[in-house]
Amino acid sequence: MEERRCKRCLLRELAGQRKEYETVQRYVEDLAPEKRAAQATRETRLRKCKACEKLLDGMCRACGCYVELRAAIKEQECPDERW
């Protein structure tokens, strides 16, 4: 059976299906506090990612990153200039 791709899903919504979620979560947790974006900032960024047509299966098709990782890093920007 063909695996269905999830349009506009974040990794956390696919946690039971994608092992990458745990890896990304560990990386975010290990970020130095001064490099980590505030939780409210991350959530705002991720809301914008979820509304973007370039989000596919937790990844940004503009740059290939996992959006939850990019959103967690304070100094990062959206490659499509949405945040």
The helix-and-strand class reads mainly alpha
Strand content: under 5%
What percent of the residues sit in helical stretches (DSSP H or I)?
A: 25-40%
Q: How is the main sheet built?
A: 2 strands, antiparallel
Overall mean confidence score, pLDDT: 91
Globular, elongated, flat, extended or rod-shaped: what is the shape? globular
- Give the CA-CA distance, first to last residue: 37 Å
Explain what the structure shows.
A two-stranded antiparallel sheet has the order 1-2. Helices cover 35% and strands 5% of the residues. The radius of gyration is 12 Å and the shape is globular. With 83 residues, it is mainly alpha-helical. The longest helix has 12 residues, at 39-50.
In brief, what are we looking at here?
With 83 residues, the protein is mainly α.
List the helices and strands and how they pair.
Layout: H1 20-30, H2 39-50, E1 55-56, E2 59-60, H3 67-72
Antiparallel strand pairs: 1-2
